[in-house]
Amino acid sequence: MKKSQKSIKLVAYYFLIIIFLNSCSSRYIKLVSPDTKTEFGITLTTPSQGIFFVENEKVGASKNKIKIHTKTANSIYNNYGPATDKRFVGRTNARQLKFNVKDKTYLIDITKFKKRTAMVLFNGESKPIIKYNAKKYNVVIRDYFSAQYK
């Protein structure tokens, strides 16, 4: 009996951790009407894809953290090349990003981010995602886009 209670508690803790981790970046992604205008922003529509490197300049960060973000962003840009009809790759100073997917439209307001630097990924098929750890950008991109083609 005690083992099953511990197992239930353990499963509940894992479930709460997963919910918390998923909600951290999702709170900045809002469902909006397709007619919503962006304030100094970029709009992508399916089937286009995007890898955006953004900064909320209102938030402070160490020079080293900004340097790592910039260096990684430039490296990824060099690996994937410039924007094409299929995929946009690059750094932007846009304040908002809007993504149109089938019958849903998502808006990301970069000025609301609590962290200075981030990467926003859009695979052209589902809700975009936001990642903040510049050291993991390459792995996230590889996993995110390779999962789409499996």
Overview of this protein structure:
With 150 residues, the chain is α/β, with parallel strands linked by helices. The chain has helices spanning 2-26, 63-80, 137-148, and strands spanning 29-32, 41-45, 49-55, 87-91, 96-101, 104-109, 117-122, 129-131. Strands 1-6-5-2 form a four-stranded mixed beta sheet, with no helix packed on it. A hairpin with a 2-residue loop joins β5 (96-101) and β6 (104-109). The radius of gyration is 17 Å and the shape is globular. The protein starts with a helix and ends with a helix.
Which structural class do you get from the secondary structure elements?
alpha/beta
Order of helices and strands: HEEEHEEEEEH
The overall average pLDDT, rounded, is 82
pLDDT below 50 for ≥5 consecutive residues: which ranges? 19-24
Instruction: Please give the radius of gyration in angstroms.
Output: 17 Å
